[in-house]
Amino acid sequence: MIRLESVYAGYGGGDVLQGVDLDVRQGSITCVVGPNGAGKSTVLRTISGLLRPRAGQIRLGDQPIHGRSPAAVIAAGVVQVPQQDGLFGRLTVRDNMLLGGYLIRRDKARLRRRMAELAEAFPIIAERARDKAADLSGGQRRIVEFARALMTEPSLVLLDEPTLGLDPKTCQTVFETTKAIHALGATVLMVEQNVRFGLKLATDGVVMERGRVLLAEPATDLLARPDIAAMFFGATATT
Amino acid sequence: MATVTLLLQTLILGLLAGGVYALMSSGFTLVFGVMKVINLAHGAMIVLAAFLTWWVWDRTGLDPLLVGIFLSPVMGAIGWLLYKTVIARVQRADWELTLVASFGVAVAAGGVMALVWGAEGHAATPSYFTTSFELGPLVVPQAQLYACVGAVAMLAALHALLRGTFLGRAIRASAANRDSAALVGITVERTMAAMFAIGAATTGFAGAALSVLYQFVPDSHYRWIGLILCVVILGGLGSFLGAGLGAGILGVSEALTSSYVDARWATAVPYVLIIVVLLVRPQGLLGGRVRADGVPA
Amino acid sequence: MTAARARRAVIAGLILLVALVPVFTPDTYIHNLLILTFVVAVTASGWNIVGGFTGYVSLGHGAFIGVGGYTGGVLAAHWDVSPFLVAPLGGLAAALVALLLGLATRKTRGAAFVIVSYAMLELLGLVTRNWSGVTGGSQGFLMPLPSWDVRFQNWPFYYALFVLVLLSIGMTVAIRRSKLGLGLMAIRDDEDKAAGVGVRTAVYKSIAFMAGAVLVGVAGTVYGYYVSTLSVGTMFDIVLSMQVVLAALVGGRGTVWGPVLGAFLVVSLSELTNTTLGGTDAGAFRLIMFGGLLLVVVLLLPKGILPTVGNLLEHRRRGDTASPTGTRLEDTPLPPAPARSGTAPSTSDLLRVTDLTMRFGGVTALDQVTMAVPRGSITALIGPNGSGKTTVFNAIDGTYAVTSGSVTLAGRPITGLGRAQRAHAGVGRSHQLPRLFDSLTVVENVAVATGEFRLAGLVRSAVSGAEAARAAELLEFVGMGAYLQARAGDLSYGQRKLVELAQLLMLDPDVILLDEPAAGINPTLRARLTALIRALNDSGRTFVIIEHDMHFVLSLADRAVVLARGRVLADGEPDEVRADPAVLEAYLGADLAVGADR
C-alpha cells in the first residue's frame, strides 16, 4: 500500500535514515521495531511530510507523496498519531476532535456525522467532551488521539510508539483499539519500543537498525526468533 | 481632598487607565503569546490608527470610536502585509534582529506620519471628550469609561475567536505544538499570518480610543510601545489574563505615583517595572517557565 | 606590495587626510559633519564590543553619551574646570552604568535584553530630566563657553573626538586579537557551551560592557561641551541609539572598521536627506530613511558591508567555495595520544554520583541514581529512550542544578560548582549534536577552552604560544590537523564531533562524558572514534559513554550501567548486563498479557 525506496533523511546533523526500503501490505498491521537511534520515528515523520527526504521515494499506491506538505499527505489518506504532545492539552476533547477534522471542516454535515460516529465507538469522547485534554489520564488521551486520527476516514494510520508511558492495563486498550481500527478497514503502520507487544499485535514485522531495514517477516515468525534480544546488544541478526 | 476619597479617585483613574492599556496591548499579547514575536511597531500602528481616526472625524464628524471599528480591517490588512514582507522573513534568521527590524518599521512609520500630518499634537474631541460621570465625590471620565468598555469587548471578542472558531483552534494548536498542528492538516504559516493580521486589526479601535483620550504626536509611539511592553512583561508574556492584570497594575502604579509622589515620575513607572520584572521574575506574574532570553520554555 | 600592506597604506592615508581637514578648511559645516560622524563612530564601536563581539544587541547604547555628557558637564560646572579635564570621569560613570547593565545579563538575554536596554535608555533620560536641581531638567544645562581663539573654535572638539575614534579602533583591534575577544565571541555563539569549556562568562561580559561604554562616556562629555547646551532630548536620544545600531549593522557587526564605515555612511545619508529634502519635513524624511535602512539591512544584508564584500573577494580568490570534505581517515595512522599534564589523583573511584534525583515540574526524571565510575575505566551508560541518561550528564557537568543528591569528582564534591568551575575541576563533556562556536576557526574553537582564569592573561594574543601548540597537537590527534583555519560552521557533522572531542581534551579533563558519540556517523569514522577512545583510555583517561549503538559501546566498555525510567536497573560487566532478564525486558518491552481473545 505504501512503499519507501532508498529513502535518506536527516535533521541537518547527519542522516538518520540511510537508505530505507520498506513495503507495507494493504490491510496489514505492520510493526517496526529496533534499537534507539535506528530511525523508526523518523520514517513516520518522513511519510507524514514533517521531514523532506534527501533522496529516495515514498509512494502511496502509485502516487508519490515524498516531499509533500503534511496537509497534502493527510488529504491523500495518511494520518499519524505522534509519539507525544499529539493532543493539544489546553484545548477541550471536543476541540481536539474537531481539529482532527480540520481538513473537512467546511463540510459541516460530514464533520457532524464523523463526530457522532466516533463518539459512539469511543464513549469517552462524549463523556469528557468539555474537559481539557490535559485533564485526562494517559490512556484516555491515547484513545482520544486514536479517535481523532479517524475523523477524516484515512486509509493508512501511522502510530508512533502508542504504548509509550502507559501501564499494562491501558496497553490492552491500545491493543484492542488498534485491532478495531484495522477491522474498520484501515492499514496500520506502527513503530513500537515494546517489541513483544508490537509483534503480538501486528501481522507483519520489520526490524530497523542504524537507519536501514534489516529484516521484514511475518510478525509471529519474527517474535519466535531466539536471537531477537541479541539484536539489541551487538550481534547482527542473521537473515 | 480627604485621604480616602483621594485614594479611591486615584484607584479609579488608575484602573480606567489600565483598561485603556489592556486595550492597547491585546493585539500585541495575541501575537506574542502565539508566535513569540515581539512587534515593536505595534505602538506605531496604534498611533497611525489614531491619526487616521482623527482625519476621518475631522472631515466627517463621525464618532471616533465608530471610525475605529471600521478601521480594524484596514489595520488588519496592513498587519498582514507587514507579516509577509518583514516578520516572516526575519523570524527565520535571528530573534533579536526581529526586534530591530520591527523597530525600524516603527521609526519609519513615525517619519511617514510626521510627513503627512506634521508634528503638532492632535486629538479627536467628540462631545464626551471632557464630560464625566459623577459618583458622589468621585469622578469617572466618560471617554475613559467608554474606552474601558471597548477594551473589555475587544478582549471578549478575541477570546470568543480563539475558543469558538476553527481559526481560533488552529491558532491555539499551532502555538501549543507546530508539528502536531501540522499533523492534523493545519497550514501553520497561513495561520500565523492570519493571527498577526488579527493582532494588527485590534490597533484600529485602540488607535481610535487613543485619539479621544490623549493628545498624540507622531513620536507618541515610543511612549506607547514602552507601556505595552510593560503590561505584557508584568502580566506574563502571552496570557490575556496576565495582560489584563499587568495593565491594571501599571495603571494603578502610575496613578499612585502621580498622586502621592510626583506627576513627573509617573512616566518613569513603566520602565522601572520592566527592568525590575525582567530581573527578578522574568516570567511575569502569570507566565510559565521562561528561558533567560525571554523565549517561553 | 602585498594586499595587507596596501590596505595599511590606504588606511594610514585616510587617517592622515581626516586629521588634516581642519588645517585645510575652516568651513565649520564640514567640521560639524565630521564631529557628528566621530561621535557616532565612537558609540558604534562601543556598541560593537557588546553587540558585535559578545552578541548582546542593545537599543539603548546612546544612553552612555548622555551619562558621560551630564556627568562631565555637571562636574565641570561644580568644580569650575574645563570639561575636557573631567571627561575621563564621564567615561568612568558610563562604565559603571554599563557594568550594572552587564550584571543584568545574568537573567536577561536576547530579546529580553533588547527591551531592558531600551527601558534603561528611557529611564535614564527621565531621571535626568526629573533631577532638575542638578541637571537643569527640561531647561537644559549650560556648558561653559570655549575660552580659546574663535578661529580654532572647533579644533579641540574635532581632535579630541578624532583621538577617541582612533582609541576606539585600537581597543577593538586589541580585543579582537586577545583571549578576551575569543572568549566573547564564544559567548556570542553559544554562551552555555562557553561556560562548559571553562570561560568565566560573567567576568568576560562585565569587562566587555565596561569597555564598550567607557570611551563613549568620554565622547559624551566632549560632545556635550561642543553643543554647549545639554538637553535630555539630544543626550538621551533614541534616534542616536538607532543610528548607532544601524551604523554597526551596515558596516559589519563584529568587524573592526565596520562601525566606523557605517558611521560615515549614516551621517552622510542623514546630511543628504537634510540638504536635498530640506525644510520642516527634513526630520521626518530622516526618520523614514533610518527606519527603512534598518529594515533593509536586517532583511537583505544582515552581515553588513565589510563582511559581505570580504566573503565575495575571498570566493573570487579561492575559486569555488571549497568547504572541507572528509579525509580518508582509514588511510592515516593514529598519532600518539597527548600526554596528561599534572599528576593523576589518587582515589580509585574517580566519579561518584550518589542518590541523584532530578525533578522538573511534576516529572521525576531521575530517581535516586547512584553510580560509581572507577578510575581508568570506560563505563557505558545505556537504557531505553527517555530513561534519563542525558539528564545524568547534565547534572554532572552543571547544566542542571540537582534537586537532591551529590556528585563527587576524585573525592571532592562538585555539586555546588558552576559550569565553568566544573570544567576546570576536570569534567569534560560532548553533546549529542556537537556544539561548536560556528563563527570561529577550528583551532580557535579548541584554544578558547581555558584553564584556570587569570585576569592578566586576557590581554594575551588569542591563539599563541603553548596553548596554540597544544590545540594543534590535539587536533592532529583527532585527525583534524589539516583544518586548523577552517570555519567551524562549515564543517560536516562528523568533523564537528572530532573537533568537539579535541575541544574537551584541551582542558585535560579527568573524566570524559561522551553523549552518543557514534550517532549518525559512517562506519569509518566510527572505527576511528573507537581507536581514539581506546588510545586516550590507555593513556589514563576515564570515560562515561551514553550510546544506543550497542556494537560500538559494549565492545569498548569494561562496565555498563543500565538506566530505565530514571532508575538504575543494572550495573556490572557488559556480558552480565546483556544477559540480565530485567535489562532485556526494559529493551524488549514487558511481556504483557495482551491478546485478541481477552
Short description:
Chain B is mainly alpha-helical. Chain B has helices at 3-35, 42-60, 64-91, 95-117, 142-164, 166-176, 178-183, 188-213, 220-235, 240-261, 263-266, 269-280; strands at 132-135, 138-141.
Can you walk me through this structure?
The complex is a heterotrimer of chains A (239), B (297) and C (598). Chain A has 239 residues and is an alpha/beta fold. Chain A is 34% helix and 25% strand. The longest helix of chain A has 16 residues. Chain B has 297 residues and is an all-alpha fold. Chain B has a domain of 170 residues. The longest helix of chain B is centred in the first third of the chain and has 33 residues. Chain C is an alpha/beta fold and 598 residues long. Chain C folds into 3 domains: 247 residues, no CATH class; 170 residues, P-loop containing nucleotide triphosphate hydrolases (Rossmann fold), CATH 3.40.50.300; 73 residues, no CATH class. In chain C, the strands form 3 sheets. In chain C, strands 8-9-10-5-11-12 form a 6-stranded mixed sheet, sandwiched between helices. Chains in contact: A-B, A-C, B-C. Chains A and C meet through helix 7 and helix 8 of A and helix 22 and helix 24 of C.
Shape of chain C: elongated
Taken in chain order, the helices and strands of chain B follow as: HHHHEEHHHHHHHH
- What composes the largest sheet of chain C? 6 strands, mixed
Radius of gyration of chain B, in Å, reads 19 Å
| Count of separate structural domains of chain C | 3
Biggest protein-protein interface? B-C, 50 and 45 residues
DSSP helix fraction of chain C: 55-70%
Q: How many beta strands in the DSSP annotation of chain C?
A: 12
Q: Beta fraction of the residues of chain B?
A: under 5%
What share of residues of chain B is helical? over 70%
Structure summary, number of beta strands of chain B? 2
